[in-house]
Amino acid sequence: MNKIIITTLFFIVSFMSYSQDSIVFSHTSGHYNSSFYLKITSKYNKLFYTTDGSKPNYNSKTWHDSILIDNNFILRIRAKNGNKLLDKIQTHFYLFNFNKKLPIASIAIDNKYLWNQEKGIYVKGSNTYLDSLGKEINCNYKKNWEREVNFIYIENNKIEINQNCGIKIFGETTRVYPEKSLRIIAREKYGKKKFKHDFFELKKNKKHKHLVFRTSGNDFLGTRFKDVLSAYLIRNLDVDFMDYKAVHLFVNAEYWGLYNLREKINEHYLKYNHKLDKDSVSIMMGRWVRQQGRSSDFLTMYNWFHKTKHIDSIAYLQANKFLDIRNYINFRIFQIFINNLDSRGNIRYWNSFSETSDKKFRMMLYDTDQAYGLAYERKFLQHSLSNNHKFWYNPNWSTEFLRKLMTNKDFKNDFLVQYAHLLNTSLNKDTLLSAINHFKDLYIGELPRRGDIKVKHLKNLQLSEERWINKVNKLIKFANNRYIYVKAELVSLLAPSAWFLLEIKSQEGKVKINNNYSQCLPFKGEYLKDTKFTIEALNDGYFTFSHWSDGDSSRIRTINHIKTDSLKIEAIYILKEPKIKNHKKQKIKEEITELNKDNYILYLGYFLMIFGLGLMSLGILKNRL
Fold first, then answer.
1. Domain presence at residue 301
2. Where does a domain end: 382, 412, 427?
3. Is 15 contained in some domain?
């Protein structure tokens, strides 16, 4: 039945596409290993084309039958119908002998919109000047200019996206670098209002308004995956992050290198990630800069923290109304652990002010390229709790929320428990090493090396494999050492009773510790003696929790200020037999439902086929008349 449906729908789609497509290409965009003649047939009397990314016009070359394609090639075709040049431009990209596994992104753009001194977004421009401090003013690449481009996305040699969109330079201080990040925007005026494809793996969003080709910012001459590593590590901590996909970027058929395709943090991100009305969200940056929405909610919170000297139990209730506390704790712990000095300015808060929302502010992870440095012994927690502005990265305004919250015993307890738990899980040494090696293996064979890139502004920027591995080894050194200093700092500052080893025994089941994501048993980790937290036993498949080894049958038990150096507990599970009969009934019911769906699709397919034949007949009759 499925084969019949697929065949029928394929016929319908192919037939209707053919009947409506006025320009037919002998070869689709994609990767090829040998040369071929590209042939184009059309009902129009004349086709104009370009091969430099610009839009064809009356002055462009006229297409005659076919052309030999034996190298990377960008082709843009525009038809003339009677005396009129049509608006629609078809763009195809052909890639040759490119032996890489990651997806391909192609940008086609008129070169003047990149390099022209008056119009180009990638250059300083002829109107740049220096102010009294020697700072460059009025640079082209610092402006918010947007140019129209064509964007093709090829994954597994399948064309997933081919649409026109806008492009801008992306970033702040990194705009001055020779290699710049780029942002593309889907707009109705260019064709489609969204990019519809599930580009990323950690999130399954299929709709995107903005996408970023990111160079890795301050890490562009380093590993090129620091910020991606951070996104991967924080994925389970209920903190917003920009999903990622490493892609090879070609601009006008010239190879520009390996970029990280990323989500863009803005109101559209919140719309597609949280199903929120984009007009009822706020995003605040740094101290109190409004990126989106309104600033009044944030300033109310900011002023409250500024005026409050000590957060007692009553004040803590108010703090919980302003902030998602667990989200804030996880965010702060993560930034402190990875040693991200730049987190003070690259901080993002967001909230929804719709009537149905809780209006709490939550955190977004943004730009961690300066993290994971070799100063893994830095006392970043101490600096983050200090009201003495001693370093450039800890002005008082950037530490005020955390300093004030730490005066509350409940917050302090949750902060310490969370820090310990994350050191056992998401920020565990073995977790970091595994993640770093994962990205090392992914990037090492995909990154371009010296000589692979020919474009003038990029050709001398590639690291040798040896130098790149040295950069990765610095990350590995950080992972091997950071936790040692972090654990000592926690004891010296906040938890003088030090650590105890928690062991939860069982060969089945899962547990939630301090209401975090579940951990499979057996589990072992170190926690601070001066803290109080819960362990919840969870069912696992056919295994149902029965009781703890001391006879306690409560699923949730409290660990409270342990005095010894170790604590061993065991969760007892029993095997619960599955109900086979009910399972079979459910399976039969699902099969019947699926059969009804198949019949519906088949009948719909027949209708569309007949409808398509009718449209073609009318078209033929119209042409004859």
1. yes
2. 427
3. no
Q: What per-residue confidence (pLDDT) applies to 389? A: 82
CA dihedral of residues 613, 614, 615, 619 (deg, nearest 10) = 100
pLDDT at 17: 40
Give the torsion sign (CA, 310, 315, 321, 325). Answer: positive
Domain boundary among 387, 409, 427: 427
Are 386 and 296 found together in one domain?
yes
Residue 50 lies in a domain: no
Residue 268 is predicted with a pLDDT of: 96
Question: Which phi and psi (to 5°) does residue 309 adopt?
Answer: -85, -40
Cβ neighbors of 263 (< 8 A, separation 6 or more) are 200, 203, 208, 210, 211, 212, 242, 243, 269, 273
Residue 611 pLDDT greater than 80, yes or no: no
Burial readout 125-142 (b: 16 or more C-beta within 10 A, e: otherwise):
beeeeeeeeeeeeebbbb
Give the amino acid at 537. Answer: A
Lookup result for tokens 């964007």? 151
Domain count, the chain: 2
Q: Decide if pLDDT at 46 tops 80.
A: yes
Parallel/antiparallel/unpaired status of strands 84-96 and 210-214 = unpaired
Q: Which amino acid is at 181?
A: S
Same domain assignment for residues 522 and 421: no
Residue 248 has pLDDT above 50, yes or no: yes
Q: What is the widest separation between alpha-carbon atoms in the chain? A: 95
Residue closest to 22 by CA, chosen among 77, 61, 62: 77
- pLDDT band at residue 587 using 50, 70 and 90 as cut-offs: low
User: For residue 526, what are the domain limits?
Assistant: 499-575
Is the same domain home to 402 and 513? no
Task: Clarify whether residues 311 and 418 are in a common domain.
Answer: yes
Record the pTM. Answer: 0.88
What is the per-residue burial (b if ≥16 Cβ within 10 Å, else e) of 323-357?
A: bbbbbbbbbbbbbbbbbbbbbbbbbbbbbbeeeee
The radius of gyration computed from the CA coordinates of the chain, to the nearest angstrom, equals 29
- What would the pLDDT profile of 422-436 be if each residue is shown by its tens digit? 999 999 999 999 999
pLDDT in tens, 483-501: 999 999 999 999 999 999 9
Least confident of 18-27, 175-184, 285-294: 18-27
Name which of 293, 284, 397 is nearest 346 in CA terms: 284
H-helix or E-strand containing 413?
Answer: helix 409-424
Average confidence (pLDDT) over 58-76: 96
